[in-house]
DNA sequence: ATACTGATTAGAGTAAACTCTAAGTCAAGG
DNA sequence: CCTTGACTTAGAGTTTACTCTAATCAGTAT
C-alpha cells in the first residue's frame, strides 16, 4: 500500500497529476482511516498502463472512456476491445509516419554534414 | 504560385493556421500587387516539411527556432544540424515506445478475444 | 510547544496551438 | 450589383492536460 507521494515518486509523476486523474475518474484509490489515499499493486499496474497509453498519445478522454468501461463491468469487454484495437491501429500508423520522417531526417542530416565538410575543405587556412 | 486558400486546401490545413504560422515567422510567403499572400513551390515544400515535423510531435517553438536559423543564413547550419539530430533521437526513442505498446496491446487484445470466445462457448443457448 | 512534513479540498492559473470574431477594406467574376 | 475570397489588426475563446494556490489538518521531531 502506497501513499500518493510514494506513487508519484515511483512512477515519476506529480501528486497533482494523481489527484487530477482521480478527479477525471481514471483512478480511484482506497482511503485509509485518516481519509488519505492508498494505492495497492493493482492500482500501480493500472497507472503504469495509463502512462504507456499516454506516451503513445492516447488522449485523456479516451483513457477515461476505457476506465469507465472497466467500472461498468464485464459486459463492456467488447467495447474495451474496440478501443484497444483502434488505438493499436493509430500506433501502427504512427510508427510508419515516424519511420518516414526518420528517413527524411537522416537524408537531411547527411546533406548538412556533407555541406559542412565541403565548406571546411574550401577554407583550409581558416 | 498559390493563394492562401489553395495552399490550405492542398495541405489540408486552415487559412487561419497559415496566417498563424506567418505570425510566428515559420513561413513568410511573397505578396502580389494587391498585397495578397503568394506561395511558391519552395514555400509548399517547406510547409510539407513543417507538417511532417508536427506529425512527429515537434513543438511549434522548435520549428520556429529552425525556421529562424534558416533566415539567419549559412553560418547556422551547425545549429540546424543539431536540432535535426536531436529530433531524430526523439523519434527513434518514440518508435521504440510505440513498438513496445503495440506488443502490449496485442497481448491484451488476444486476452480479450479469448475471454469473449470462452464466454460465448459457455452460453451456447443464448 | 512549535515547527516541519505531508496529507486534504475547491478552484484558479498556465502553456500550447490553434481557432475564431469583429469590423471593416478591396478587387475580380458572373 | 453582388457574392466570393482575399486582406487588415487586435484580441477573445477553445481544448488539453496539467499545475499550482490557499487554507486547513494530523502526526512526528526537537
Key terms:
homodimer, 126 residues, mainly alpha, Multidrug-efflux Transporter Regulator, Chain: A, Domain 2, 2 domains, two-stranded antiparallel ribbon, DNA-binding
CATH architecture assignment of the largest domain in chain A: Orthogonal Bundle
Strand-residue proportion of chain A: under 5%
The level-1 CATH class of the largest domain in chain A: Mainly Alpha
Whole-number tally of structural domains of chain A: 2
- What is the number of E strands of chain A? 2
Series of secondary-structure elements of chain A, N-terminal to C-terminal: HHEEHHH
> Radius of gyration of chain A, Cα only, in angstroms?
23 Å
Describe the main β-sheet of chain A briefly: 2 strands, antiparallel
Describe the structure.
Two copies of one chain form a homodimer. With 126 residues, chain A is mainly alpha-helical. Chain A has five helices and two strands, in the order ααββααα. Chain A has helices spanning 4-11, 15-23, 41-55, 60-72, 77-122; strands at residues 30-31, 37-38. In chain A, strands 1-2 form a two-stranded antiparallel sheet. In chain A, a hairpin with a 5-residue loop joins strand 1 (30-31) and strand 2 (37-38). The longest helix of chain A has 46 residues, at 77-122. At the A-B interface, helix 3 and helix 5 of A face helix 3 and helix 5 of B. The structure holds a DNA duplex (30 and 30 nucleotides).
Amino acid at each position: 500500500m502506497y501513499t500518493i507521494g510514494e506513487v508519484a515518486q515511483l512512477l515519476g509523476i506529480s501528486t497533482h497529476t494523481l489527484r487530477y486523474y482521480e478527479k477525471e475518474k481514471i483512478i480511484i484509490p482506497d482511503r485509509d482511516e485518516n481519509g488519505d489515499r492508498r494505492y495497492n499493486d493493482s492500482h500501480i499496474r493500472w497507472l503504469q498502463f495509463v502512462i504507456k497509453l499516454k506516451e503513445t498519445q492516447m488522449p485523456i478522454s479516451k483513457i477515461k472512456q476505457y476506465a469507465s468501461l472497466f467500472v461498468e463491468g464485464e459486459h463492456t469487454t467488447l467495447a474495451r476491445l474496440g478501443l484497444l484495437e483502434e488505438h493499436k491501429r493509430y500506433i501502427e500508423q504512427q510508427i510508419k509516419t515516424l519511420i518516414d520522417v526518420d528517413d527524411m531526417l537522416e537524408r537531411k542530416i547527411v546533406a548538412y554534414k556533407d555541406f559542412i565538410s565541403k565548406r571546411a575543405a574550401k577554407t583550409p587556412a581558416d
